[in-house]
């Protein structure tokens, strides 16, 4: 499983480590740095401006200042007891799905993320949540048998709108990307 995101002249490749590549010249790609996180697998990645966010086997999100890719600085970590599934940054928020459901964090202060909302998806008799996507006022997440939709216009009153269940095999719905 590989994930990849780019930010201007740099590309961030995720597998069992995080590789920071200089891709300003596609004919001459070079490795600038490689980050290993607690000897655990990194599972999700996103980049917004000079902030890189990733989640792993033993935390939901870690925020890293990448203004200098040769010397990235870890700013904060949140959700120590979770396994990350996926994440998306729509500043000033980070949207995370993991082993227990999903969380919405305010990351406007990168050094001190604050949880705005949390939804325990175990209530849906499911336990594997793998993808999350935010489009306007709607949050979409997938896992196990289903595809779930929430209205997130008001963070103090997030509303569950509905779900679609696959009648086929467990874990068939893994990814959501709405254009």
- Unreliable sequence segments: none
In total, how many beta strands?
16
Helix segment tally: 0
- Sheet-strand content, in percent, reads over 45%
Report the span from N to C terminus. Answer: 23 Å
- Helix proportion: under 10%
Q: What would the principal axes of the Cα set say about the shape?
A: globular
Over the alpha carbons, how many angstroms does the gyration radius reach? 16 Å
The biggest sheet, with number of strands, parallel, antiparallel or mixed sense and barrel status, is: 4 strands, antiparallel
Q: Helix/strand/pairing class, anyone? A: mainly beta
Question: Average pLDDT across residues?
Answer: 81
Order of secondary-structure elements:
EEEEEEEEEEEEEEEE
Strand order of the largest sheet: 1-2-3-4
Walk me through this protein's architecture:
The protein has 179 residues and is an all-beta fold. The chain contains no helices and 16 strands. It has strands spanning 3-7, 10-14, 18-22, 30-35, 42-48, 51-56, 59-65, 73-78, 84-90, 93-98, 101-106, 114-120, 129-135, 138-143, 146-151, 159-165. The radius of gyration is 16 Å and the shape is globular.
Secondary-structure blueprint:
Layout: E1 3-7, E2 10-14, E3 18-22, E4 30-35, E5 42-48, E6 51-56, E7 59-65, E8 73-78, E9 84-90, E10 93-98, E11 101-106, E12 114-120, E13 129-135, E14 138-143, E15 146-151, E16 159-165
